[in-house]
Amino acid sequence: MTDSIPLDATTTDIDDTTVAAPEAEAVLTAEEWWRSAVIYQIYPRSFADSDGDGIGDLPGITSRLPQLADLGIDAVWLSPFYTSPQKDAGYDVANYCDVDPLFGTLADFDAMRQAAHELELKVVVDLVPNHSSDAHRWFQEALAAAPGSPERARYMFRDGKGDDGAAPPNDWESVFGGPAWTRITEADGRPGQWYLHLFDPSQPDFDWTNPWVRERFHDILRFWLDRGVDGFRVDVAHGLVKAEGLPDWRASADAGSMGGDAGPSPYWAQDGVHEIIRGWRSVIDEYEGDRILVAEAWVEPLSKLADWVRPDEMNQAFNFPFLEVDWSAQEMKSVIDDSLAIFPGVGAPSTWVLSNHDVVRHASRLALTARNPQGAGIGPRSAGKPIPDLGIRRGRAATLLTLALPGSAYLYQGEELGLPEVIDLPDAARQDPTFFRTNGEKYGRDGCRVPIPWESAKPAYGFNTTGESWLPQPRDWADLARDVQSGVPGSTLELYRTALSERRYANLGLGRLTWLDGFGDDVLAFENNGVTVIANFGDVPVELPPGVAIIASEGLDEPALPADTTVWLRLS
Ligand code: NOJ
What we know:
The protein is α/β, with parallel strands linked by helices. The protein folds into 3 domains: 1-18 and 513-572, Immunoglobulin-like, CATH 2.60.40; 22-130 and 210-495, Glycosidases (TIM Barrel), CATH 3.20.20; 137-196, Alpha-Beta Complex (Oligo-1,6-glucosidase, domain 2). It is 23% helix and 16% strand. The protein has helices spanning 58-71, 106-118, 137-144, 211-226, 273-284, 302-305, 320-323, 329-345, 362-365, 388-402, 433-437, 482-485, 492-505, and strands at 3-6, 15-18, 38-42, 75-78, 82-83, 95-99, 122-127, 157-158, 181-185, 191-196, 231-234, 292-295, 316-317, 351-353, 408-412, 513-517, 523-528, 531-536, 542-543, 548-552, 560-561, 565-571. An 8-stranded parallel beta sheet has the order 13-12-11-7-4-3-15-14. Strands 1-16-17-18-22-20-2 form a 7-stranded mixed beta sheet. The chain is globular, with a radius of gyration of 24 Å. The two termini are 25 Å apart. 51% of the residues are buried. The model is unreliable at 1-30 (pLDDT under 50). The structure holds 1-deoxynojirimycin.
């Protein structure tokens, strides 16, 4: 619920000293920690590399956990580290209950989980239920078995159209480009059935109408719950169920669940998903503790997404409408208002997210000079490249606004360093299947996945000790390394630290937002648990109210808030 009160914003007599937060107290209750938690996404292959092979790993994560605890987060979410041929950076799982040797062993996972818990960090892992890898034993057995067999029934195999079955069963497109169907060669060498893959051909979709599939995933949940995880981020949580009869759909996969002129999608946001989620909830409820399910569901509008977080379903859903907002005060206000009405309306907290491993980093995205649809990425030949200085200013301003909102916030590794999207990756270095499936028309997501810099003077900026890196790191990242920013007032790292500490101290995650009027259309101003937040999206500096103490800002040195800046104040 939000409402609006006026604030006298006419005078400029401010005390511009930064007020340090008193020692952060554990204000988060042990119960329902997720309602207000700040959850930090670790992308394991790019976080920290202990063995120097250029790909991050679980021991690397363990070694850096104290620095995450020091940042002031509550939980980590790890993108997949399971056995995988890595055709889609681990979102192609060949064994759901083991660790890929690239990332370590199950013992390394246990050590990481234990170290995180000792630091009072919760651990959320990824669940990838829409598809497996084609290297998964279940799919290999399906290929070897005959059409109509129980093995084939685990996945979406269909006969092709036409007399010789040479045309795909329908017109669906893959999210990564090209058709969503691939024809197999049967065991006897003849051209055979087709299988559905909403993503890469190496990622065959499961058939979730099959109870066998449901049972296997209950086993997988129990396997990781037994190992002490605090929850699951559910990949493609809106895609598991496909419409009866697999009807044609004239839209491309990135048209979204509403499909524009083509009408609602036959594979996104089908109602049958909810029964599956309820089954998972009941498995999780067999376990002690407060363990969560988080939906990665690109579902519009927010009122429909709210169905994913009803009391007997998931705990949270990523708020992608918030992530997709342009740099516009009124658009942002509208999404915040909707979110704070709709999610609590079903008993869930809103989440807030600006960056992840699938989108252009927000320190670049907010200063793009042309439209860039999600997944398209940005590279050397792209039109509309971001304006770097503007991007980092807006990125910091957006973060400060976000971390003041009630609900749970997600951070993506490296955003606390102000990392921009890496644009100048050579084609030969790119690995995202999107780049290959679209013949380079879309650059894809590699630019937000480059290994992050820890120590400016070390090989690979401290990502490892050998200097290897699965994607090349930009030359100018030494200046952004964590050690260069740590303890430096005004650095992006210190801004995040201060904001996270104040957020915890003032319990903003469980607070209540009240809009403040009187600042004009290009400014958002609100109060939450005694903290006043003013964000200036416009060109004109905003005069600040009198007698205020600045809690967190981006280096204000005059009594007015410049363009593209957010400030947290305590009114005296
Ligand atoms: C969403 C994941 O975040 C993305 O990285 C992946 O490519 C697709 N799902 C397919 O699993």
